[in-house]
Design a protein that fits this description.
- With 356 residues, this protein is α/β, with parallel strands linked by helices.
- 44% of the residues lie in helices and 13% in strands.
- A six-stranded mixed sheet has the order 1-3-4-7-2-8, with helices on one face.
- Helix 4 links the parallel strand 3 and strand 4.
- Helix 7 crosses helix 9 and helix 9 packs across helix 10.
- The longest helix is centred in the last third of the chain and has 18 residues.
- It is globular, with a radius of gyration of 23 Å.
């Protein structure tokens, strides 16, 4: 057991009744909240995940029990946070929202856990960023709903066993591999969220357009969906930008032509690559002759954070086959060269290699 110092920091605790308290924030932030589905029946995509977790939720409600702890992992913007909010609503529970970086000290997590009420859902975003010292306090909390810690020092040291109310922990991460095995094994439910199809994204866009009171036809929705990198968050962001463009430059329904023109202005090409994606691909292909190149070198050359490249840029480029990751580093594939109008350099392979 580790010594616990400091008081709980309740400022870390963002406790909200997810059944409908209006959030007071900037209009754009409020808009993002409004576009999120509130129930499983409204959720588009991730069918296997939604079917499984909805069954688990209904079963827990019928038993009058807490839901097993759940872990959601996958690229950013695919719905991990949204599903967590829906789970709390379906359970008629309160969601307590925090993040790994916010829980810096053991005192923070103990204070957070001790404030939970029976049936609460604790959502930890970026759970892979918890320190080992903080993580240790979650082990007994998740398994036995208790926390053991020491207060005082030397002859005045005292062991305290703090019982907790039954709760459900939901973890969200873009890097499941960075979770320690002991923590990962304590999640009874674990789900990987994958990229969406164009058809699913078109449904998301049509639904969001209705909420925004924007007129859009099927071809316009599909055009935006094709450029959304398989990610609903990007679909909704692009829809808002197309809406702005339409209000200023065009009047009437958003169709394929209007959507295409608006997204070209935004620097989003026909496959959904934006300026940063194209800069990454061009840098790898030109500056490093198509690779291999390490992520640190690319980050320094582009002047962009390494984690942003790994979590935001590379997953989609890997998915569409424009780059590969080999033991030697990143390489541009023949398709990647072609997309930016270049030819592979003499001696450059097609980019096929052993994926890391």
């Amino acid at each position: 057991m580790r010594a616990l110092s400091g008081e709980s920091n309740e400022s870390l605790l963002e406790k909200q009744n997810v059944e409908g308290k209006a959030l007071i924030s900037k209009p754009e932030t409020q808009l993002v909240q409004d576009l999120r589905p509130r129930r499983f029946r409204d959720y588009v995509g991730q069918k296997a995940v939604v079917d499984s977790i909805s069954i688990a939720v209904l079963a827990a409600k019928k038993r009058g029990d807490t839901l097993d702890h759940a872990l959601f992992h996958g690229p950013p913007g695919l719905g991990k946070t949204t599903i967590s909010h829906i789970i709390a609503r379906e359970l008629d529970s309160t969601l307590v929202h925090t993040s790994g970086p916010a829980l810096e000290r053991p005192a923070d997590v103990v204070g957070l856990l001790s404030n939970l009420k029976a049936g609460d859902v604790l959502f930890i975003d970026e759970i892979h960023r918890l320190s080992h010292a903080v993580e240790e306090y979650l082990y007994s909390a998740m398994e036995d709903f208790r926390v053991d810690f020491m207060t005082g020092a030397g002859a005045f040291a005292k062991s305290i066993n703090l019982p907790l109310e039954p709760f459900t922990l939901i973890g969200s991460t873009t890097r499941a591999g960075m979770l320690s095995a002991p923590l990962r094994e304590r999640f009874g439910l674990a789900y990987h969220l994958d990229f969406y199809s164009t058809e699913e994204l078109a449904q998301v866009i049509s639904r969001s357009a209705g909420i925004l009171k924007v007129e859009i036809d099927d071809c316009g929705a599909i055009e935006i969906a094709k450029r959304s990198r398989g990610t609903p968050r990007i679909s909704n962001r692009l829809l808002r930008r197309v809406r702005d463009f339409t209000q200023v430059r065009h009047a009437g329904v958003i169709n394929k032509v209007v959507a295409s023109e608006a997204l070209e202005v935004e620097g989003v090409d026909v496959l959904g690559l934006d300026r940063l994606d194209k800069l990454y691909l061009t840098t790898l292909s030109k500056n490093y002759d198509g690779g291999p190149a390490g992520i640190q070198a690319l980050s320094a050359t582009i002047n962009e954070d390494q984690q942003t490249l790994e979590d935001v840029v590379e997953p989609f480029l890997l998915k569409i086959g424009f780059i590969v990751r080999t033991p030697q580093g990143r390489r541009t594939t023949a398709e990647g060269f072609s997309h930016i109008g270049l030819k592979p350099h003499p001696g450059q392979s097609s980019g096929q290699g052993t994926l890391l």
